[in-house]
Design goal:
Blueprint (H helix, E strand, L loop, with lengths): L13 H6 L9 E3 L5 H9 L4 E3 L1 H6 L3 H5 L1
Parallel strand pairs: 1-2
Length: 68
């Protein structure tokens, strides 16, 4: 999760820090701060298997266009 639990701010750069701590054989889920297809591609390249995109889904006016 890239949310700083001390101040509840979203810090997407934390995904890259955590990617260096990954163990082989485990699926990693990126949570919070995912707002674009480009960022999803970055996360996949960093080794993440899944992403939780709840806020992006709730706030998008062009959801299906953005996912394509």
């Amino acid at each position: 999760n890239c949310r700083n639990l001390l101040n509840l701010q979203i810090e997407p750069e934390r995904f890259h820090t955590f990617a260096n701590l990954k163990f082989e054989g485990f699926d990693w889920v990126a949570e919070s701060g995912i707002e674009s297809k480009e960022f999803i591609n970055e996360l996949v390249a960093s080794g993440y298997s899944y992403g939780l995109i709840g806020s992006a889904l709730m706030t998008s006016n062009q959801l299906f266009d953005e996912l394509n």
